[in-house]
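hiii, so i know i said id send this last week but things got crazy w the move. better late than never?? heres the sequnce for the chain we talked about at the cafe, plus the structure i predicted for it. fair warning i was half asleep when i ran it
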Amino acid sequence: MGIFDAILFPFIWFDSAILVGFEWLLTRLGMSDTSGWTWVLAIIGLVVTLRALLTPLMIRQIKSQRRLQMVQPELAKIQKKYKNKKDQASQKAFQEETFALYREAGANPFSACLPILIQMPFFFALFRLLNSAAAVSAGTADPLGLFSRDLATKMAESHIFDAQLVSTFLHHDDLSAKILAVVLILIMSATQFITSHQLMRQNMSEEALNSPMARQQQMLIYVLPIVFAVSGVNFPIALLIYWTVSNLWTMGQQFFVIRNMPAPGSPAEQKYRERMARKGREATGIQLKNPNLLAEREAAGEAGAAPRTGGQRVQPKSKKRAKKR
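okay and structure toks below
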């Protein structure tokens, strides 16, 4: 076992248990254990199960991200307040005020990375599991998790549309496999493009859309499909199916998020408010932990900026000036 497999060991067992469990269930329902469609449905079941388990984390991430966007103006004020103050006391006060703002808003700047960090080992394990099926079947690699050599052989011998699930575009001469691989790569690339495009055009404010970061993301919209096309020709059909199903889930999930939890100031938020108005409902959207936070801070700022009404302050006089009088 290599170091990579050792790190992924528990995740490979988890993924293989779900995959084998779906294969067992489908064969008990009457499907053949050497049918390509049995394994396709098992892969779909595995992807859906993993993504469904991660959905609560995704929703938590979206809520935290939206709250961060809502308090961004207040955060900018704090940053401006301590812009040129580099002493230790000022830096400590800056951190305290910033985290107090996050706490009152119910936002966590680190939660945006949490779902990605959690799901990465599961998806690496799934990639390893499906990509090694042919080698396990041929006896040149050890079985992984509960995905035994017998099961790997059954997957390797299964077909859909006359294409073996372990065939690749580059390394096999099977014309059916090449055609199916091209179709799946095109679907993968199209879903990736649509997902990225709707995120930028529907769920970003005009200010965010004109930022340097947005321009970099716009470049990725066109680069990522090319990356999929270049890398996809090396992957087996089974792995391309997993990737396509995962992209379809992401696209549908993002459509739901943009429709129901739009970013502040985005075209999607305007459509959301119009839709709620037609239904006669209040467009509450995602609320801050303290719903009155922004109003309270605005009122406090106005009170601090109000002019003094007690007249001009009398300057103290020194003893010399008093004697001269």
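btw The longest helix spans residues 36-70. thought thatd interest u
miss u guys!!
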